[in-house]
Amino acid sequence: MKKKLPKEAYGGVSGKDYVPYITDKSNKGGNVAILIIGIVLSTIFAASTAYSGMKSGLTVAAGIPGAIIGSMLVGVFAREKGILGKNILQGMSSGGESIASGMIYVLPAIILIGSQITFFEGLLVGVGGVLFGVGCSSLVYNYLIVEEHGKLMYPESMAISETLVASDGGGDAIKYMGIGFGISGIINVLTGSFLNVVNNTMTFVGSKFYKWKFSTEVNPLLLGIGFIVGLEVSLTMFAGSILSNFGIAPLIGYFTDMAGSNAAVWNDASMSISQMDVNAISGSYVKYIGAGMMLCGGIIGALKLIPTIIISIKETLNAKSNNDGSAESSSGEMLILLGGVVIGFVAAFLISGSITMAIVGAIVSLILALLFVIVAGRLTGTIGTSNLPVSGMTIASLVILTLVFVVMGWKTPEDNKSLLLFAAFMVVAISIAGGYTQSQKVTYIIGGSKREMQNYFTIAGIVGVVVVTGTILLLSGQLAITGSDAPFALPQANLMSTLTSGIMSGNLPWVMIIVGVFMALVLFFLNLPIMTIAIGFYLPISTTSIILVGALIRVFVEKMSKNDSEKEARVANGISLSSGLVAGGSIIGLIGIILQVSGIVKPNTPSGFAASNMMAFVILILLVIATTLPIISTKVRQNEK
After folding, report:
1. Residue 159 contacts residue 68 (beta carbons within 8 Å)
2. 597 vs 199, 417, 466, 473, CA distance in Å?
3. Across residues 45-74, what is the average pLDDT?
């Protein structure tokens, strides 16, 4: 058996002539055990991604962690399925994660506008989006996967493929994921998300002369995200928070102190402007500047996609029939696509206030979703799903659909809810397209069945819809809490709710929005990452600061390595440990909330030293040490040097 991918996996031959790692097409990767394990993994990654994404505004791709965990579980429960079974499991893991990475942008926005969402509504638009996204992506499979082989590199697909082939090294990865899960679990049990016996947040506020705020939430989940995304992204986000908390908020605070006693806050007539503290300033003014930055960043990102859109449509229309000779016909994918369209129209009639709204909303949503599904598939081949600008494409789609609603005169709160449900259909289709295309590229490289991946991935996507919708409903009480100390930051969902309700009602602090737009334009002219800075500007500094700590640990690990082999091994194990931190923080945190809601666990209120900033600092030091020591102690095997 070959021990590495063929060099042609990276190009050098035409797609139709590529010989995959596994050449026996009669072998299949799926069975009942694989299906059950895949459903469990898709559930775990959907729930953990939803929780962590709503907490931090960032999500972590599940392909590589899914490949690592899948390799271990296949070895235990389905050894005869080998690498093909492992491939199915990484795809199903990505399916659950992809759903969460999209739905958390929109469904919580319905709660933020003061409305309610039912499980059936979320299920209907979500399943419709899954089927439509998978169906559309399958129709352009031949172009994106086969004809563009070696041109679209699919970097994350290749990393997953290499992980699967080298799955005999998965033991160390599993060990480090377990360590991370344990560290995160212990801290989450002790802090607010579970028992709340100790304080894990350091906060310092300047209330006179210079109104500023610095805070750090000692959260293993966020620290793990920082290690995974690295210093550049973490530092850029933190720079946005510094600008927000030490630049804009104090500047506005300087002028609020000069306001007369009769001047009231624009969205709270009971509060005098001169009485505003830094939290009120951030909630009523600064966050709208951040919304303007994200809006402008999303539009600029969408405009940058125009050449890609044109190329994608042109090449797709010119591509040959997507039957690549493998005897896997397109009838299944056509049925999936048709199912997505039918469910989309059924959902439209159930969520709309009129037949006209249902027809117009469904047609516009389907056209926009189709457009951006193709773009998402192509961009995944260039930058991978981790960097896929789902939020930018969603913002562009949502603004277009909102303007259609305004033109048609649909401006009530009920219409706003319908609008956001249409947007949920679009964002699910867009996000699932990236994960699905990535998984199909892995299947093509390894030599699995395209049809088998399609079916198992679709099942995982539907499971993801059920899990994410249920998670959002379970957390709805906490998601409705807004302000600087809200338990969930929800930066994207806050932006969606602000845009739609503001455009429909005409009640927005447009000066703040416009200032944010021009700040984003300055960043664009300086060739700086607008959306990353804007998200940092919008997120609490307590979130971005601990993410930066995680990135600094990675820098320390790299600097302490003696050579490239040692650095590569340590970073790989660090990423595995960090994936465990994210999974542990998400799952244990979610379990804690379930136990609190059910009344089984009654959280305490810390007092004395346990409630102090010093307590949080002690936890931070312990977390940094517990995270760093296992990574630094990594031993490099002789055959890895």
Report:
1. no
2. 21, 26, 20, 12
3. 81
